[in-house]
Amino acid sequence: MADLAGINGQREHFRVVGKPNLPGVLSWSQVTGVAKFGVDYVVPDMLEAKFLRSPYGNARIKKLDTAKAKAIPGVVDIVTWEDEDMKNLGGGGMGGFGGGGARPGFLGNLADQEGMEVGVIVVAENADLCDEALRALEIEWEVLPHVVDLREGRKPDAPVIRPATPAPKGGMGGFGMGGGGNNPPKKGNVSFSNMLDGDIEKGFREADHIIEYDVNTAAFAGHMPNPLGTVAWWFDDPLHGEGKSLRVEGVPWGHDQVAGMNRVASEKVFQECMFVGGRYCDWGIRKSQQITPMLARRAGRPVRCINGRHDMYDFNLNERYVHMKVGYKSNGLITAIDDFSIADGGVRGSTMFGNTMDQTYGPYFTTRCKNVKQNMEVVDSNRGKMWLSGQHNPMGWDTLMVSLYVIAEKLGKDPIEIATLNLHGPTSQTDPDPVPSYEACVAAVKKLMNWQWHPTGAKKLPDGRLHGASFRYNQCPRHSVSGYNPKIELRGGVIHLASKGPIIGHYGLEANAMVIAEELGLEFKDIKIDLDHHEIYRPFGGGSDGSTASSWAIKECANKLKKMILEAAVEEADNPPDTGGFGGFGGFGRKQAPNPFKGLKPEELDMQDGKVIVKADPTKGLPLAQAVRSNLFATYSGRPPAALWTQRGKALDTMNVATCEVAVDTETGEVEILRFGVAADPGKVMRRTSLESQIDQVMDFSAGCQLKEEFVFDKNTGVRLSTNMIEYKKVGMLDMPRVDLDLLETRAGNACYGSNGISHSLANTHLVIMAIHNAIGKWVESPATPEKVLKALGKA
Amino acid sequence: MKAFNHVNAKSLDEARTALADGKTELIAGGTDLVGTLKDNILRTYPATVVNLKTVPGLDFIREEGGLLKIGATTRLGDIAANPVIKEKYTALAQAASRVASPHIREMGTIGGNLAQLHRCWYFRKPENRFDCKRKGGDRCFAMSGDNRYHSIFGAVGSCIAVHPSDTAPALVALNARVVTTSRTIEAENFFDVKVPGNTVLEKGEIIREIWIPAPPAGAKSAFLKFAIRKSIDFPVVNCAVMTGGGAARIALNAVAPKPYRAVKAEAVVAGKKIDEALAAAAGEAAVADARPLAATRWKVQIARTLVKRALLQTV
Q1: What letter would DSSP give residue B71?
Q2: For chain A, how far is it from start to end, CA to CA, in angstroms?
Q3: Per the CB < 8 Å rule, is B229 touching A669?
Q4: Which residues of A lie inside 8 Å of B (Cβ-Cβ)?
Q5: What would the pLDDT profile of B146-182 be if each residue is shown by its tens digit?
Q6: Does pLDDT of B197 surpass 50?
Q7: Do B298 and A667 touch (CB under 8 A)?
Q8: Model ipTM?
């Protein structure tokens, strides 16, 4: 594939796109601390609000008496789930990335997770008074049975924590449904999702060998260090019609949803905040972000509600136990895959990513094996919630990678050899040809790592630790499916790109600006990005892949504007606009210098180095602001061709590979990642600095989830014990692994200039785990803490 | 965080007087206290917090009369960087340098590091979610819950939470004394298991300084810490040793509710030339009396390994 559908998709030379370290307005705001996030807004006369949060894993409020709380001086309002205002809090629908929008029952009296908002919200002069009021509530709880251990929860005699719910429906447009038809009905806490492709029995009959093993994936948290929350207030607005307008800060991507929930026209909702704090693909809007307009309306004053540190530990990946049975020929070619898993369904409202969605986008169809069975049991739990998307989406990839590793180990071969044998060609599972991008990535990573495979346990380092290595591959995806509606304007001689925002850290807008500069012969710094919540366009559809897809639309739009500019340059050369005199502003008319474009056609002009120039003689030209005095704008509505990735691995274009080297101290169980090696081909690098950072970040996540991060529950109460930065151990600066990186550009994608994205494709659950096995010959479940490594070694 | 009165003490006497009402806490660096207050983990909340940083003469490091003397409010970062401590009292410098993070070491004090509350995720759950024995409750929730980081040498007063200090084992190994406003206590006798405190300090008693005798001629000391992360993490196990001059002192921490002096291990190495085999034997001896729970067995392996490696560092 390539960018054949768009203009200039085959461009050979790049001045701007792909260049590293081009600082932008948005970068400056964040590194200098000028950027304001929702929780940075403190306004005069502001009240604070806090939710009651359940101290139990699963519980209902039976009786509530708020009298003592209300009597505390400084407590302004207490709203319960039974209040009409709470019941009438409107459904906001999706309206942008707004998963978790308010629906009937925004706040109920049942909490199915420790720490969940339940029953009551208090509003007071300050946060301390809110805490005091919450403590003064007289509550009779009905403590219900809880499930925090999936294997216990799926047992036939486990207490049923939730009545049967409808079978999961399709996810976001383009992903399709998880699971297949003919699923058995829900039983106890367990829903079923079964898929079958090909003839699994035949596949196993054809196999020379069959292996069975477990690939278990621990849950882990995105943990957003910026607490989520909003401050909102209503104000008299003379410019936007009858009724008060709403100002709300802290939900920059939920503008339309907030408007809908509060039954106010979108034009009457105003926000300044454009920055969203660090997160990885968690688009969920929290209750603290939705509630403040209603509270502010009741109080007649600004109200702020923000989550505490302990409230920011939602799942980025669900826990899953997977039992694999794989048949293969003597040369290592896989003939059948039977994947049985027990997945965490989480609490009410949890996304299907991380369980049934994986069945739709699992990795198996990147192989030549057409016989695949996937049976999943999704267990209701009180463990927590995964919002909209997550760290590993799709997440099933490492079940295949471990298969390839195990087969390689059995055959005494390099896992890269087995992976290459099993990978099908570019166009289908029966395509015998190699995938050029994959071949290039493998060659690059072997060179990068000075790759020398060794059998399990065979290499000891000089300091006595055991060395291990591992390999995985994935397709560089593009899952962005939304259309784009950019508007690019020439105003006063300056190019403007308008966007709805927000700024989520992937610098998609700055990638867009690079494309505009490239196409219009300008510098990156010449493009002005205008942010306004009332605009339409935003470069979303995921992370880096949203950047590449939106940039494709931007490229089309920029070329439309370019055509208009060149036409205007010729028109203004032949019919110069008035420069002044009476009847206009600017004084007396002046004599103009000869215009080099007079008598030419638009196709004889071009844009280069900030000027409009004559193609035949580039020394003849005018700066843009002089060449065109008119204000022009171009719009575009569309999307690039669908990515191959949507074919569930059955067609392959841009690929990536990753390797890992570890050192295992067999006396303490400590695992050190010596380095990751990544060779990735996103097709075309757009904003290089963003891409490098995204890869660093995702390998960091992978190190954390496989070595240190763990959700710990008290099994007796369902209470989470690890919801703080001491107990939930994200890797610190001294633990961050080294990432050696080689970025390739085969231009094999079909978004802007042949790009795709990286998205979640390098995030992995078992690259380190496989390397540990290569070192010590034992499987250790993630996170592979020293405790678990020592147990695997028989030393604990 | 609830409001409290804040008093800048001008003298230790003023601070002691303030403590008499039973509703007052002391603050130096505040790196443990503030978190405790913000999370509201205890049954009671102080009405007043008295600042010791404003008491003159508590922040010093000097050698005097054959002793290294360190004031109670001396910051851990200063201790870690002090050239005399690094050279002659190496275990203490190494221990101070491994506490938490650079930011915390710039604020945290040695007195606070010794007196800090223990680390148990049941004890530390906000809003006193688990009203355990160390708060006046009637049970230890860790005993029947998740206790993977807890004691390997059994309970004290039914509590299996561990003492988390990094400097404590170093001071025990260096034969230090804690000088308070009313007495002088051997470091290894300074610790206790109270509701909720971790020291033998009586009501109104305040740490004034730490005294460490000059090491015997030829003695060397070392400290090792094992944690899940290389920074900003409490120890899973830490170990400090001092060998030479015919004697050995070995202390472990984060293995029991109080720092643990490994006397059996000391007997193995005292007066002998330490090699790999002897160090390993000392490691075994150090954990000979361990009584781990099922989930803490792994810590026994860590402890024996740290003793061995710390001893080998003194060779």
Answers
A1: E
A2: 53
A3: no
A4: 55, 128, 131-132, 310, 667-670, 708, 712-716, 719, 721-722, 725-727, 729, 731-735, 785-787, 790-791, 795-796
A5: 999 999 999 999 999 999 999 999 999 999 999 999 9
A6: yes
A7: no
A8: 0.97
Question: What's the angle, vertex CA B273, arms to CA B269 and CA B275, rounded to 5?
Answer: 85
Q: Decide if A144 contacts A178 (C-beta within 8 A).
A: no
CB contact under 8 A, A729 and B228: yes
B89 touches chain A (CB under 8 A): no
pLDDT for the residue numbered A595 = 93
- Is the N-terminal amide bond of A394 cis, ω within 30° of 0? yes
Minimum Cα–Cα distance from B293: chain A residue: A796
Q: Is B148 on the interface with A (CB under 8 A)?
A: yes
**Phi/psi of residue A228, nearest 5 degrees:** -90, 145
* DSSP track, A369-386: ---EEEEEEEEE-SS--B
Distance between CA atoms of residues A668 and B227, nearest Å: 10
Nearest CA in chain B to A733: B231
Stretches where chain A sits below pLDDT 50 are 92-103, 168-179, 394-395, 583-588
Give the pLDDT confidence score for residue A99 in this predicted structure: 40
Put simply, the answer to whether A796 touches B127 (Cβ < 8 Å) is no
Contact by Cβ (8 Å): A476, A757: yes
Q: What is the pLDDT of residue A282?
A: 79
Task: Pick the residue from chain B with its C-alpha nearest to A727.
Answer: B121
Chain-chain contact of B146 with A726 (C-beta, under 8 angstroms):
no
Of A715, A732, A790, the CB nearest to B229: A732
pLDDT in tens, A29-48: 888 888 888 889 999 999 99
> Distance, in angstroms, between A250 CA and closest chain B CA?
23
Question: What pLDDT score was predicted for residue A165?
Answer: 56
- Rounded to 5 degrees, what are φ and ψ at B146? -90, 110
The Cα A627–Cα A633 span in angstroms is 16
Whether chain A has a CB inside 8 Å of the CB on B138: the answer is no
Q: Tokens 């006369």 belong to which residue?
A: A45
What is the model's pLDDT at position A252?
84
Which has the closest alpha carbon to A262: A288, A292, A230, A294?
Answer: A294
Backbone φ, ψ for residue A557 (5° rounding)? -65, -40
Q: Which pLDDT score, from 0 to 100, does residue A169 have?
A: 46
**Contact yes or no for A380/A147 (Cβ under 8 A):** yes
- The structure tokens listed for A140 are 């009779």
Supply the pLDDT for residue A178: 44
For A125, the token pair is 């002069």
For B15-27, what is the mean pLDDT? 93
Question: Does the CA dihedral A741-A746-A752-A757 come out positive or negative?
Answer: negative
Secondary structure letter of residue B16 according to DSSP: H
CA angle B76, B81, B85 (to 5 degrees): 90
- pTM for the full model? 0.94
> Can you tell me which residue has the tokens 């036409």?
A567
Q: Supply the Cα-derived Rg of chain B in whole angstroms.
A: 19
- Show the beta-strand stretches assigned E in chain B: 5-8, 24-27, 48-51, 61-64, 67-71, 177-180, 184-186, 207-213, 220-226, 237-244, 247-253, 260-261
Under 8 Å between Cβ of A396 and A362: yes
Q: Considering CB atoms only, which of B101, B126, B226 is closest to A668? A: B226
Cβ–Cβ under 8 Å, residues A682 and A756: yes
Q: Quick one: DSSP state of residue B236?
A: S
CB contact under 8 A, B229 and A729: yes
How far is it, in rounded angstroms, from Cα B6 to Cα A790?
48
- pLDDT tens for each residue of B46-95: 999 999 999 999 999 999 999 999 999 999 999 999 999 999 999 999 99
Residue A250's identity, in one-letter code, is: G
More confident site: B130 or A645? B130
Tokens of A138: 């007289």
Backbone angles phi, psi at A50, to 5 degrees: -140, 140
Beta bridge partners of A47: A303
